[in-house]
Each structure stands twice: as C-alpha cells, then as structure tokens.
Amino acid sequence: MNQRQFNHPQKRSNNRNDQNSSASPKASKPYHRRQLWVTESCRLLEFLLSGLKEQSAASVKALLRHRCIILNDNQILTQFDYPLEPGNVISIISQNESRFGLFHPKLKILFEDDYIIVVHKDSGLHSVDSTHGGCDNAAAILDSYLKKRDPQKRIYIVHRLDRDTSGVLVFAKCREAQNKLIADWNERVLERTYIAIIEGKLPDQKGTIDSWLYEDCHKIVHSTDDPSKGLRAITHYEVLQSNQTYSRLKLNLETGRTNQIRVHLQSLGHPIIGDEKYGSRVNPIDRMGLHALTLCFRHPISQQTVSFTDPEPKEFGDLFERP
Fold it and tell me: Which domain CATH number covers 39?
C-alpha cells in the first residue's frame, strides 16, 4: 500500500471482481476552488508555478505550507518536489476555505463519510476534554460542526492523541461505528506509524523496544522488564536522519499503550524533544517532536482497508537543515 496516500472507503475498484460486496459509505463531497490537470511528468512546484502564473512563487509555496494543494481529491501535498504523472488532478483551495466546511486553526478534516471523521490535529490541541474544564478540544469542535448540520448528530470517541502530538486522529459519527472500532481496535488497526525527533543519536539504525508499561499515582508512565507490573508494549523504530544534536525516527507500533512512544524513547536515554514530562531538556521547535503520520485500519461498516497519512510538520525537517 502506498504510504503517502489515503484511500477512501467509497472508492470503487476498476476490477468488478475486486469490489467489496458490502455497501460502501457515502463520503461528503469536498469543495475545491480550482482544478489543474497534469499532462506530462513533472515536479509539483514546477507545475504549480506554470499553472498559477498570476501568483508569485512565495504565494504558491504558501499554498503548500497551508495544506491547500490536493492530489486526485484524496491526498494533501506539502512537498515542493512531489512527482506528478499524466492524468493526475491537482485541486487548489483557498487558505480561508475548508474542504468540508470546518474552520479551525488547529483542526482539519482529512476524510468524512456517514460513519467516521478522520482529522489532522495540531500540536497543542486536546483530543477530548479530559480535564472537564471546558478546554478547547477536537471532540467538542467536531461535535459542534456536526450539530450545525443536524442537531441530533454527535461525535463518538474512538482513540486519542496526546495534546502535544500532532497528526491523524479518528472519531466515529454513530454508536455502531464507535462500538465496532473500539471492540477490536488493536486487531482492526493494521498500521500505526509515527515520526519523532529525539535528543542525540541512537547506537543502532533499527531496533525494537519491548517492555511492560505501568502508570503511577501521578499519571506518569514507567517502563519495566517485570511482566507483573503492567501491560506489554512493543515499538519498532528506524533512524531516518541524524545530526550532531538530534535524530529523526520512524516508529511503528504493535501496541497502543498510553504514552508508549514517549516512555520507550525515554527508556533508551533519548527522549523526544519538547517532552519535559519524560526527560527532555530542549525544545528547539516550540512543541513536542511527535507526529502521528499514518493510520491504516479496517472501516467499521464496509470492512474495507482504509489508510490515512498526514504529512509531517515542516519544522521537523527544518531542524536538520540548520547549520
């Protein structure tokens, strides 16, 4: 499966024999300002500069930074050098518009159908109001979004991301979808990939962290080799990039325990930057360096495999371009 693409559950196969016999969910139709058709192989920025000659190069680059460029109606592009092929369709939306009618600086809808909503959550936004203090949170924002269209609708919690973690987050739109997702979440999820920026360099380019995690009375999670003390947690990591100060990792989870990645990397002596709770001493990008890149799972109703990827924050890469 293409890791850079998310596939809609309602998308039909070109081969009738490959189509799922289940009824496919009907997706909300996104709104686009303008569309451009690719006729020859080229790089994205080159194509945009040619097709948007009335705009300056700076404004075109701003469209990429603000996630306003959509490939084939199902993939947000942010890389200047992304390769385009003949037949691709590029859609350009305004920075002040929303594909689905949701306007919020820290929350964007990546996909929506009758049963689920998949969103990009920014760092600094709570997934839910766990403090019961009326804090700004993704669940409440989406609940309000649904109720504007139908007062009887509401959001149902499926999983969470830590407040300072950005990336792909899924909610259900009905109790049936929530129950099916929660009932066998670990079996239903086929891939959970994260990007993390850590302090220092790891001795190995690849590895697996396998331990048991438990939470103390102060809500701090600890890693131990004692199976009697907690729940088993398994994290696979690969070093993508390093400099003298930081390393950029890709992590795949076999389990989804509370604070799993943060605690496992702390246990190696290389905490995630900006994660003061688990030992970080530096914060060069003014946020925690953890991003939920890809989530792949079986749709609760159609049972089709769906995969959603949210490009990692630009500041992650910028950190390795600094002198």
Answer: 3.10.290.10
